[in-house]
Amino acid sequence: MSKNAQTQLSENVKFDQEKLLLTIKRTLDAKGLLARTPDADLPTIEIVVDDIRVRSNFSAVMFGFMAGDDHVNGEVIARDKMGKELQRFQVSASYALGGLAGGQDDARMNWLYETFAQETVNELTGAATEPSAQASAQRSADWVDIKDPNELRALYTNKTFRGDGWVGHFRADGKGILLPRRGDPRPRTWEVKGNDLVCATEGREPAKCYRYQRSTKERNEFVAISVTSGDRLFFTVEDGVPKF
């Protein structure tokens, strides 16, 4: 932990570095990246947390993202057995939702620990630049167009989307929020248009519309294709959203 993070601990007592470390170890172990016993011939990783912020429970519940975000930022360095640096990268996890569900201490802190751990593993394994959905996109037979408005509504209704560097939560009433890895939360609305489009609007900006495909191999993997640019955004979908 850096000196800056150490000075922040007194104002962020809910942060538990041991719990963060245990979560990282558990995530590494699940991917087969953690040695069962010490082995001096294997590479090592050093994790330096350098910035912490945790809202009080009251602020998180009552004000949500208007009270700012909770975040844990740090640097990960991988070295070989001789101490030579193999890899160095920044990891950032943030959480800005509130309400009685999203504002509770355990929910917020566990989300931060899990996200920091998963981002660390993604960088170490290369999954951050080539997620499994994106890799399989090269085989067009693996993807099917969604052309049913009811299926599109079901895709968005009370669902959480997870992409590379962002998380989105979408409610049945057409409201949503995008949480980028870095930057402020971005409230938005969504609606299905025609048989194959979902359009999202942020504030007074023009609506951005997308067509969707689902994977034939992984039921929770999807791709959104921008109508204007043709860019493809790969993401996974989970049931449920926190309160916002």
What does this structure look like?
The chain contains 7 helices and 12 strands. With 244 residues, the protein is an alpha+beta fold. It folds into 2 domains: 3-125, Double Stranded RNA Binding Domain (2-Layer Sandwich), CATH 3.30.160; 132-239, Beta Barrel (Lipocalin), CATH 2.40.128.370. The protein has an 8-stranded antiparallel beta barrel. Strands 1-2-3 form a 3-stranded antiparallel β-sheet. Strand 10 (208-215) and strand 11 form a beta hairpin. The longest helix has 21 residues, at 105-125. It starts with a helix and ends in a 5-residue tail after the last strand. Residues 55-68, 97-104 and 128-138 have low confidence and may be disordered.
Radius of gyration: 20 Å
Numbering strands along the chain, what is their spatial order in the largest sheet? 5-6-7-8-9-10-11-12
User: Given the helix and strand composition, which structural class is it?
Assistant: alpha+beta
Give the name of the CATH architecture of the largest domain. 2-Layer Sandwich
Order of helices and strands: HHEHEEHHHEHEEEEEEEE
CATH fold label of the largest domain: Double Stranded RNA Binding Domain
Count of beta strands: 12
Unreliable spans are 55-68, 97-104, 128-138
Number of domains: 2
Helix content: 25-40%
Largest sheet: 8 strands, antiparallel, barrel
Summarize the structure.
With about 240 residues, this protein is an alpha+beta fold. It has 7 helices and 12 strands.
